[in-house]
Amino acid sequence: MNSSTAFIASALVAAVSIASAAAQTGPAPVPTYKSEKCFGIAKMGKNDCQTAASSCAGTSKKDAQGDAWVYVAAGTCNKIVGASNTPKKG
After folding, report:
1. Does the reported pTM lie above 0.70?
2. Which positions ≥6 away from 21 have C-beta within 8 Å?
3. In what helix (H) or strand (E) does residue 36 lie, and over which residues does it extend?
4. What is the chain's pLDDT, residue by residue, as a tens digit (90 residues)?
5. Taking Cα atoms as reference points, which of 45, 38, 44 lies closest to residue 82?
6. How far, in Å, CA of 4 to CA of 18, rounded?
7. DSSP letters of 39-89?
8. What residues does 73 pair with on adjacent strands?
9. 68: how many CB neighbours lie within 10 A of its CB?
């Protein structure tokens, strides 16, 4: 593979990855297993949806943001330190 072919291939990969990242707008799909929303445990940018400032998945601005939630298996949230079944400030 010559350098121009490699450059074109890497540009294509970058374009596809950007397009797929942009496609994640709106809420995450509801899991097929019995689930619940768990607030305050998502890593930055890994929430499933809805914060006070945003309504889309992947938009939390910090780790363990109190108003960002992720789906967990039903009955699990209250077993996680720092987690809540209701939104928290911050």
Report:
1. no
2. none
3. strand 35-39
4. 555 554 444 544 544 444 444 445 677 888 889 999 999 999 999 988 877 777 778 888 899 898 899 999 999 999 999 999 999 875
5. 38
6. 21
7. ES-PPTT--SB--SS--STT--SSTT-TT-EEEEETT-GGGSTT-BSS---
8. 35
9. 32
Pair of tokens at residue 86: 């209701």
Rounded CA-CA distance 44/38 in Å is 15
5-43 core/surface letters (b: 16 or more CB in 10 A; e: else): eeeeeeeeeeeeeeeeeeeeeeebeeeeeebebbbbbbe
Question: Contact at 8 Å (CB) between 58 and 76?
Answer: no
The amino acid that residue 64 corresponds to is A
Helix (H, G, I), strand (E, B) or coil at 1: coil
What is the Cα–Cα distance from 35 to 2, expressed in whole angstroms?
Answer: 50
28: tokens are 């995450």
CB 46 within 8 A of CB 21: no
The pLDDT of residue 74 is: 96
